[in-house]
Amino acid sequence: AGSVTIDGQVRRGPSKKGILISQHGSVFPWLTVQQNLMFGLDGISEAEKAGLADHYTAMVGLKGFEKSYPHELSGGMLKRVEIARALVMKPEILYMDEPFSALDALMNLKMRMELLRILEEERHTVLLITHDVEEAVHLADRIVVLSLRPTTIQATFDVDLPHPRKMSSPEAQALKEAVLRELGL
User: Fold this and answer.
1) N or C: which end of the chain has fewer CB within 10 A?
2) How many Cα atoms are found within 13 Å in the side-chain-facing hemisphere of 94?
């Protein structure tokens, strides 16, 4: 158990300041892609909602799928809908809890690259929770290794490697090995 503090205030529940993207998925199956993106956009006209939905649908590479329902999409496409749905809310922080763990290895890598491209366009703070050290080295600017219970910060690694990162580079491999050593592997 712990707490999340944003701007000095403890957050105990959902907030538009921070949006969660989890490994389990969070799109509404009865809504189309466009309707999923428009859901929760309050205080603006339907035309503005549709414009934002169109913008983020295009940003994540789903133009042409606006009228599709979740059951008509692949796992990677669903993950893109989730990312777009989070971004349309313009959060300060994206909480990503193993967002790509349910995807196969190739789609996982594609989604990492896609996330980096999107974050280059729209700067957001991302708190990524992962058990995949290579994923952490590939995406993160800082890696925090947590201990077993009771959970404490065991080590922190600042990642000074430019994007896109070549995971086979000596620097990336050295960082991966250092994190694995910290984990006792």
Assistant:
1) N
2) 23
Q: Is the peptide bond before 14 cis (omega within 30 degrees of 0)?
A: no
Token digits for 25? 């998925």
pLDDT, tens digit, 9 for 90 and up, residues 51-92? 999 999 998 889 999 999 999 998 889 988 998 998 898 888
d(CA 33, CA 50): 11
> Which residue has 């070549």 as its token pair?
166
Instruction: Report CA 42 to chain centroid distance, whole Å.
Output: 23
How buried is residue 45: exposed, middle or buried, by Cβ count under 10 Å (0-12/13-18/19+)?
Answer: exposed
Q: Which of 55, 43, 45 is nearest to 16 (CA)?
A: 43
Q: How far apart are CA 50 and CA 21, in angstroms?
A: 22
Distance of CA 84 to the CA centre of its chain: 10
Instruction: Return the residue matching tokens 């990336």.
Output: 172
Distance in angstroms (rounded) separating the CA atoms of residues 115 and 100: 11
Gap between the Cα atoms of 94 and 124, Å rounded? 7
Walk along the chain (185 residues) in steps of 10 and give the mean pLDDT of each run: 75 76 87 94 93 92 95 90 90 88 85 87 88 94 91 93 92 97 93
CB neighbour class for 17 (10 Å; exposed up to 12, middle 13-18, buried from 19) = middle
Phi, psi of 14 (to 5 degrees): -60, 150
